[in-house]
């Protein structure tokens, strides 16, 4: 990544996802709330951009860990929803 500003924004998106993941892993976020928070994160273009670039890697890392797979699936579902609705609005 050549653009330092873009890198910093991506790093911030990763931090937001990690904080949500941590809270989910601790059991502080129910499945319903997870969907809500994932949707709220994906409202931000930079988070969708981060997910498009690194979501596959995160899914690979989650493989075999049910809780992590649940988390990754919620983010992927939210990302697809926003991509679909962004395309429809254009």
Description:
This protein is an all-alpha fold and 90 residues long. Helices cover 84% and strands 0% of the residues. It has four helices and no strands. It has helices at 4-25, 31-42, 45-62, 66-89. Helix 3 (45-62) packs antiparallel against helix 4 (66-89). The longest helix has 24 residues, at 66-89. It is globular. The chain starts with a helix and ends with a helix.
Gyration radius, to the nearest Å? 13 Å
The overall strand count is: 0
User: Strand count, sense and closure of the main sheet?
Assistant: none
**Approximately what portion of the residues adopt beta-strand conformation?**
under 5%
Distance between the termini: 28 Å
In short:
This protein is mainly α and 90 residues long. The protein has helices at residues 4-25, 31-42, 45-62, 66-89.
Q: What is the fold's blueprint, element by element?
A:
Blueprint: H1 4-25, H2 31-42, H3 45-62, H4 66-89
Structure characteristics:
84% helix, single chain, 90 residues, mainly alpha, globular, 4 helices, 0% strand
């Amino acid at each position: 990544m050549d653009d330092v500003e873009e890198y910093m924004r991506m790093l911030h998106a990763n931090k937001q996802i990690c904080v949500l993941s941590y809270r989910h892993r601790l059991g502080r976020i129910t499945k319903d709330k997870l969907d809500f928070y994932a949707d709220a994160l994906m409202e931000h273009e930079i988070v969708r951009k981060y997910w498009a670039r690194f979501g596959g890697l995160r899914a690979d890392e989650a493989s075999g860990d049910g809780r992590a797979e649940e988390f990754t699936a919620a983010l992927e579902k939210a990302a697809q929803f926003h991509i679909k609705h962004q395309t429809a609005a254009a």
